[in-house]
Each structure stands twice: as structure tokens, then as C-alpha cells.
Amino acid sequence: MQQTGLNxxxxxxxxxxxxxxxxxxxxxxxxxxxxxxxxxxxxxTVDTLSWENKGVNLLINxxxxxxxxxxxxxxxxxxxxxxHLFNIPIKDYTLTAWETxxxxxxxTGGVIFDIDFxxxxxxxxxxxxxxIERFGVVLMGGIAAEKLQYHNSEGGQEDLLxxxxxxxxxTLTNSNLEMRKRLALLQATTMIETHNEAYLKLIEFxxxxxxxxxxxxxxxxxxxxx
Length: 226
Known about the structure:
With about 230 residues, the chain is mostly helical. The chain is globular, with a radius of gyration of 21 Å. The chain has two domains: about 1-50; about 65-225, CATH 1.20.58.760. The protein contains eleven helices and two strands. The longest helix has 26 residues, at about 125-150.
């Protein structure tokens, strides 16, 4: 979200510059835009350095459209379903920046995995490689879910960065990374399509903010009946 902060900074500078140019015509004191600039820049600086862009995330969430909020649910449900199918423990999930802030997590929201479990599994090299492949699919699950529903993906930049990070120790070239990314996306898409009925029910549960245990129970029941 650092790019978002820079975008807001650029918009602020443009707005202030415009107000300075139009100030004489509108009888606006030059001290007003100058004071406003100082306050806004100070808030952005504090938010970026001390709050990890949580303020920016909250602002974005407040003005997000209904479709954008729905996209987040579809996106995170894609992560949840693929993780569940791979038996990767899920601790919690959030769907808005406000929910994330209340639970003291970074970012705009998302599925929160049991990191301790992942670290224990990673002690054996074969299990580590398998876990990397599976977690890569889970990371692409959100993008796959968005594309299935909306035919494109607006989110997922953070997922792509994490994907590159986890494959960094074992991937030598960009072409190799892109190939792994396409394969992971294809597998995630297939998993969501195969269990589409369970996935749609999961979306409704997450929309209602059901607990992780309730969501997992729903998936276990739906998948066993399919």
C-alpha cells in the first residue's frame, strides 16, 4: 500500500497547487492551502512510517464501492477454499481494513494462516517443496476467484509479491517464475470450479462473518456430499 500513499500524496500536491493558483481569483488566503498541505503531509508520513499505511487502508475502505467490497469477499474465499483443500490451517480472516485494524493485523484484510504450522512443516526438504507448491496455489486462489467471477482481477498485487518471495530460493529465472505462477493459477481455478457449490456457500458464510470453524464445517459437509 506504499504506492497508494504516494498516489494520495501526488493528488494532494496537485490539489494544493491548483488552490494556490486559483486562490487570488477565489479570495482564498495562501495560508489556508499551505496549512492544509502541512497537515496532510504530516498525517501521510506518520501513517506510512508508524502505522504501516493503516490510515490509508481505512480511507480506501470507507470510499470503496459495493463491487469492490464484493470482490474482496470472492477473493478471500478463493484463498480460504484452496487452503482448506490443502489442509493448511487457517486462524482467522478479515474482509475490511477496519476489521483488520481491530484484530491488529497489517494490510487491508485477508485470510490469516497458522505460520507456526508452516514453519514446522518446512523442516523436511520434501515437505518444504510440497508446501511451497501448495501455498503458491493458495496465493493465486484469490486472483483465480476474481477472474472466474469478474473475468479480471483488480486485487492480488500483494499475493503476487508473496508468490515471488516464497519461490525466490528455488527459482532461477523470471520465465521459470512465470511458468510456476501460471500453473498455480490454473490449479487454483480448477479447484474452485470443481468445488463451485461449496465455494459459493462459503462466500455467503464469509459475507455473514461466520467463524473459521463454521466455514470449515460448511466446506467439509458440502465437499463430502459432492
